Amino acid sequence: MAEQFPGAVLDLLDAAGDRPVFEHGDRVVTGSRLLALVRRVTNGLRARGVRPGDGVALLLGVHPEAFAAVLAAHAVGARVVGVRPGLTAHQRHHLLAGTAFRVTDRPDGTAGGPHGTVLALDDLLAAEDDGGRPRISARPQDVARLLHTSGSTGVPKACAQTYAAMTAAWAAHPDRWPPAIRELAPRLERFLVFGTLASQVMMEYGLLALAAGGTLVTADAPAFPDSLVRHRATGSVITVARLTKLVASVRARPVDLGALRALMVSGSPVGAGRLREAADVLGPVVFHGYGQTETGMISMATPYDEPGSLGVPPVELEVRDAGGRPLPPGTDGELFVRTPSQGCGYWGEPALSAEVFTDGWVRTRDIGHLDREGRLWLTGRARDVIIVNADVYYAGPVERVLATHPAVAEAYVVAVPDDSTGEAVHAFVVPAPGRVPRLGELRALVAAELGEATAPTRLTLLDEVPLTPAGKPDKRALAAGG
């Protein structure tokens, strides 16, 4: 039986030896030094009674010791829960429930109610370094981590991922990299990390950077483009909103981004027009990824793919109609996928698990299609709808049409009550620099493309779109404020 996660990561660190793998401020940490930190924390956790299957919450900053703690918690076979900054007290209480231990380096790490024994990271790092390779205690079918959704609809859902699934993931294994990842990986020579290292996206790309021989470089609360310039970053993760701001900033005040080779956009779709604009200003650096907490990466477009597409998925994907029947190329339907590292269900929510995890497939609840070349195109969310005169319309196509208007930088739509039609479209728009979009123009544009029923009846201009703690557009906040 293959050694479980994080065995392959420990091998990467061992092979790195004296090569720098982490840069934190003035500190440069080599592979052998980071492996020694993993040993110490692993030994510290075992000495304090942490065993396979125990729930361990991580309340940690972004630095080499935090990265070592994530790997150590997996080495002992714990069920790891990352607690990111920015959660409400209620959300934090929810995430901590059921954990037996809390590993923290934060001043507020002891707060949050009677949830688990508090373990200071500094105390764990004081454990003996026996010089050996950390022993992996993880068991394949144990839950390795609980990955929480953004919480934009209330309390975050916890998606459970087993050690077998984490072991099957591609990031730390160059021989498993799909074509788009083979294009991306060499560009992550200096990968900017921020937020939380327990993040699914940050950890996945961090491991990819290490496997490609790169260095993880930390940034606290990054401000683009300044952080990219200051840290000479060659790659980073970026949301659609941040990408839009970065492009506008660099166009208005050019800076030297000569080192930049990869920006991985995640969180929400990017329109073809925005991708072309980003390429004009930043060069061929934008990788447009599509995935979910429940699945990991599903597909990724490189800078050389047709703008708007998500490339050819390297995983099993079916487009199905409402009855569950597969649809032919070019026909929109709901996407069902199977990925090597997908979750096994939602922690403590069997009914929801049965709805989403079906017969080995994950129901994405996204709408899209495959073209005849096998490329994936997203067109909306199955639940992001407006019901006009009892007819269902998806928000995604309306947003994409609005985003093509030259006066629009970003566009989001929500349903609002309407006395005549039941619901109507309310558009929230971030204007393009120096432009002021008009409701009449936007209505005419949408009506011509999609029909009168989906033309917005209200328009609100925003300086910037509100974001969830995960960096995604917060439509609940828009609807509440509109």
From TrEMBL:
<dbReference type="Pfam" id="PF00501">
    <property type="entry name" value="AMP-binding"/>
</dbReference>
<feature type="domain" description="AMP-binding enzyme C-terminal">
    <location>
        <begin position="398"/>
        <end position="472"/>
    </location>
</feature>
<dbReference type="InterPro" id="IPR000873">
    <property type="entry name" value="AMP-dep_synth/lig_dom"/>
</dbReference>
<dbReference type="InterPro" id="IPR025110">
    <property type="entry name" value="AMP-bd_C"/>
</dbReference>
<dbReference type="InterPro" id="IPR045851">
    <property type="entry name" value="AMP-bd_C_sf"/>
</dbReference>
<dbReference type="Pfam" id="PF13193">
    <property type="entry name" value="AMP-binding_C"/>
</dbReference>
<keyword id="KW-0436">Ligase</keyword>
<dbReference type="InterPro" id="IPR042099">
    <property type="entry name" value="ANL_N_sf"/>
</dbReference>
<dbReference type="InterPro" id="IPR050237">
    <property type="entry name" value="ATP-dep_AMP-bd_enzyme"/>
</dbReference>
<feature type="domain" description="AMP-dependent synthetase/ligase">
    <location>
        <begin position="17"/>
        <end position="347"/>
    </location>
</feature>
<dbReference type="GO" id="GO:0016874">
    <property type="term" value="F:ligase activity"/>
</dbReference>
<protein>
    <submittedName>
        <fullName>Fatty acid--CoA ligase family protein</fullName>
    </submittedName>
</protein>
<dbReference type="InterPro" id="IPR020845">
    <property type="entry name" value="AMP-binding_CS"/>
</dbReference>
